[in-house]
């Protein structure tokens, strides 16, 4: 009887019920959509909600098992330990392969249920839900049959090893993976609607209108995840950097590139009825790249501190990736008469021309990053030789491309549709170029003398001038028609034009990130130094005084570190404690640098040697990174801009839903 009441049984049973409900929702939705049977469609929607509730039961059961140290559940026995803090036990849910797939399935079921409840009742909705359920069946089936976290151990151990030391060493473990999954899974919705549009022979703008907010939401979560992952790398890995073009970093960046291109190119289809096929290609590639990334990180074929190692799901995800490509591209080919463009580009010097060029650059960069990521795998599979493609390759490819994209990001929004007026264009270019040159001159006078940093600063000035011109162009006509102040008019514009103003905030955040990356990568100073205790060492305007080493033991963790006082111009600033943590039975140490955050630069200390009893010195890695904190600030600004763009205009929610229904029922 007790075997029937174990957490393994409850969790596994909930997953089987969820899979059965997803299969029912798929079949009833498919038949209901094909026959236009409202009762079957309603039944499928209710089943989608029920499937989410069933997976939620599985999530709750797993958390209970982790929090109560139930080592009869194999996943708990392999990934948790008694002495782990409560927050670590909670986030251990997604610390390894089986738990991460379970979390993905839960979030996907949640998105599907939310779509079933909130999406307008259009001809596209039932087919989109069918596609969502098909993807959910894959993830639930993988969880149950290939990566089951609820396997029962008849002879459980007394304790477990705990999660990977790097993953329990920083609170960002509770944030970064969830943001990444919310972004990846959220981008399933526009893919599902794109496939629904192809199935129903309505590949116009209806599916984009209904998925605009879903796409922005997924993109926003993915942006936040990438920035949070960079901060985690900076705070945990001890090397003083934030982005190493690691394979797992790359596979999170790839769908971000294609999703960014898609968000911009949909504007062309909305205004000019162009790029139908291109947009379908982009949204398909975005979803397919999330699956490819999951395959690479969970198959064991790439080496990374972010990867999940060897696992049984690699071939399954590869097969699903191929199936997605065959299904989606097959549909596009089948509906080519409906998706091919009939409008033509009137003039390359136009808004649609700038967006198209930026799209090509985004896609070219995505291809280069993908090629650099998988090239070593291809060479090893063919020849058996191990080769590496390092950061220099990715930097040489990406920096020039991004500079051109930033130029287009500045001029594109100022260009009209169809064709630009030469006089207005030249006037705007003069303001932007002048501001860019002024920024570069000021930077040069302050000691910036390298080509790419100067170009980036100039492009930042170019974009800031562009934003100023955009705001002036929106505010000035309104000021002439009203007696209100500029602040009041600006506030009204920001609230009434949330989508456009939100995009300005996002663009500003991206420029802030670019400046932070330029300073941190172009002028970073990195040194490994010996510090004799109580002897000041001068470094970049600071006096660093290592006072002593220390060792600290708490349940489940051993810490060794050094105490370093930081002084500037003879004045005490702070005390930093770079250290190394060891957790439980893990043989892997987790470096924990300590950072003095300043607006213009960070001072970063990391242990680079042992701290032994009786030792009179310590070896530290000392890094000064100019402007690195502005990367995180810029990321926050971009996320705020995304949220602002997502907020509905007051009094327009009902009109938008009505318009979406009407557009969806019309042939484009």
Tell me about this structure.
The chain is α+β, with helices and mostly antiparallel strands and 668 residues long. Helices cover 62% and strands 11% of the residues. The protein has 21 helices and ten strands. The strands form two sheets. Strands 2, 3, 4, 5, 6 and 7 form a six-stranded antiparallel β-sheet that branches. Strands 1-10-9-8 form a four-stranded antiparallel β-sheet. A hairpin with a 2-residue loop joins β4 (557-568) and β5 (571-576). It is globular.
Summarize this structure as a short list of keywords or feature phrases.
four-stranded antiparallel β-sheet; single chain; globular; six-stranded antiparallel β-sheet; 668 residues; 21 helices; alpha+beta; disordered C terminus
> Rg to the nearest angstrom?
27 Å
Based on secondary structure, the structural category is alpha+beta
β content, as a range? 5-15%
Binned, the helix content reads 55-70%
> Helix count, per DSSP?
21
Indicate the mean pLDDT: 90
Largest sheet descriptor: 6 strands, antiparallel
- Assembly classification: single chain
Beta strands, count: 10
N-to-C terminal Cα separation, in Å? 61 Å
Shape: globular
Poorly predicted runs: 653-661, 663-668
